[in-house]
Write a structure and sequence with these properties.
- α1 runs antiparallel to α2, α2 packs across α3 and α3 runs antiparallel to α4.
- This protein is about 55% helix and about 5% strand.
- It is mainly alpha-helical.
- The protein has a two-stranded antiparallel ribbon with strand order 1-2.
- The N and C termini lie far apart (about 50 Å).
């Protein structure tokens, strides 16, 4: 089967027809690979500690076009990556802090996506052969995606609501 490059994340995926997300722009093969990653993570609680990192990494690598939904999606997922990776929050605490920040979504603005959205994509993670490999790849995927957005880190940090 031939492969095509996802226009958002740059990963290479099977050239298939199929659905995509309504505002996280991707190739159908990329969206299908992300679905496989989610199915794996939902099927076993051993994946719980990296599941939200997968969601965040995918979302920020597929920022879409400037629209209210895309702006809010990218903002909250970048906020949660910051909370996980810079502040070391647990999945529950990072999610709660992200939800608190989302209450102030009117302050979010479009952030021009970086040229590269990170060295790893869903194409790398979907190939994991074990729980340990999956978790290591997800963490590296999230770290790379967060680092790619470094020109906007100060703005993202300013969106975190501290209580």
């Amino acid at each position: 089967m031939s492969e095509v490059q996802c226009m958002s994340c740059g990963g290479w995926f099977p050239d298939v027809d199929g659905p995509t997300h309504r505002y996280m722009e991707s190739s159908p093969g990329c969206w299908a690979a992300f679905g496989q990653i989610l199915a794996r993570e939902y099927s076993d609680p051993a994946y719980y500690d990296v599941h939200r990192l997968s969601v965040d990494a995918y979302a920020v690598q597929h920022p879409g076009s400037p629209s209210r939904l895309s702006i809010q999606s990218v903002a909250v997922h970048l906020i949660r990556l910051c909370l996980f990776l810079e502040h070391g929050l647990s999945p529950e605490n990072a999610n709660q802090a992200m939800l608190e920040a989302a209450k102030h979504k009117d302050m979010f603005v479009w952030l021009s996506p970086p040229e590269s959205l990170g060295p790893l994509t869903a194409a790398d993670v979907v190939k994991a052969a074990s729980i340990q490999e999956h978790k290591a790849l997800v963490r590296a995927w999230a770290e790379g995606a967060w680092a790619a957005w470094s020109p906007h880190h100060d703005t993202i940090r300013s969106w975190i609501v501290v209580r």
